Amino acid sequence: MALDVLQFSCLSDNYGFLIRCSQTGVCAAIDTPDADVIAAEADKMGWDLTQVWNTHHHWDHAGGNESLRQTQGVTITAPGSEAATIGHIDTAVSHGDTVMLGHQKATVMDVGGHTLGHIAYWFEDANVAFVGDSLFALGCGRMFEGTPQQFQASLARLKALPGETVIYCAHEYTAANAAFALSVDPDNAALMAYAKDVSAKRARGEATVPTTIAKERTANPFLRWDDPALRGHLGLETAEDWEVFAEVRRRKDAF
Ligand code: ZN
Ligand code: FE
Q1: Global pTM value
Q2: Residue 19 DSSP SS3
Q3: Domains detected in the chain
Q4: Any alpha helices (H) in the chain, and if so which ranges?
Q5: Is 95 an annotated catalytic residue?
Q6: Residue 57 is among the residues annotated as catalytic for this protein
Q7: Which is the most buried residue in 65, 121, 223, 227, by most CB within 10 A?
Q8: What one-character DSSP code corresponds to residue 12?
Q9: In the chain, count of helices (H) and strands (E)?
Q10: Ligand 2 centroid to 58 CA: how many Å?
Q11: Residue 13: nearest ligand to its CA?
Q12: Whole-number Å distance between alpha carbons of 138 and 177
């Protein structure tokens, strides 16, 4: 594979990611949950970290930017609409832009809802996407800034990616997400199997990230607004898609 991905734990439940073009050696960190850990991981791999690509402005995603700028001289690629909260940005990007990592091309996707300017980076050829706190394994980010209409449209864009797309989300929240998912979609056999697998992985201390779009389509209640059984459990048989999403999000906040 021409795109190398290194995933490692940061803080209490974040994942850090280093990505590298294997042909050119160009290396970037996706978000900066912990500058020291990120620098140490790059060092261990012998990768020359020169860039940071941010998904959104929260401290556990952009809080290490300044430190990595000072210690590693990285350049910052980030959503321009969140410049006021992210701080220094070298390359401001928005929906539809192309970002190159050496020879590897990523497309910027607007996935706003958790924060207004949240973006994802999709490497179409490598079948990989970094989605920050927009989509989680069996969940989605809290709706801090956006509206349910906006968030559902964002998740619809991710849901429409090829099924084999490998999804790197920024937190290990899957076990708690599975418990909630079963409460709103209790008859979903794919979800039951997925939840069992998550329990087993967590019991062994393994990560449940990454996931795939195909897997999430079958089991993630935040992507299943069009599913008759889920709608039935919510009593929303004739609601708009975004209304189904809004109700699932509301229930998760109270779960
Ligand atoms: Zn966040
Ligand atoms: Fe986060």
Answers
A1: 0.98
A2: strand
A3: 3-254 (3.60.15.10)
A4: 35-45, 59-62, 65-72, 83-86, 148-159, 174-184, 189-203, 213-219, 228-234, 241-254
A5: no
A6: no
A7: 121
A8: T
A9: 10, 14
A10: 7
A11: 2
A12: 6
User: Helix 174-184 and helix 241-254: axis angle, to 10°?
Assistant: 120
Strand 49-53 and strand 27-30: pairing?
Answer: parallel
Q: What is the pLDDT along the chain (255 residues), one digit of tens a residue?
A: 599 999 999 999 999 999 999 999 999 999 999 999 999 999 999 999 999 999 999 999 999 999 999 999 999 999 999 999 999 999 999 999 999 999 999 999 999 999 999 999 999 999 999 999 999 999 999 999 999 999 999 999 999 999 999 999 999 999 999 999 999 999 999 999 999 999 999 999 999 999 999 999 999 999 999 999 999 999 999 999 999 999 999 999 999
Close Cβ partners of 36 (under 8 Å, ≥ 6 residues apart): 67
Report every protein residue that has its C-beta within 5 angstroms of ion ligand 2: 60, 133
Amino acid at 22: S
Longest dimension (CA), the chain: 55
Among the bound ligands, the one closest to the CA of 114 = 1
Distance CA 63, CA 251 (A): 30
Per DSSP, the three-state class of 115 is coil
Cα distances (Å, whole numbers) of residue 104 to 55, 76, 101, 127: 18, 17, 5, 11
Strand-strand pairing, 75-79 and 119-123 = unpaired
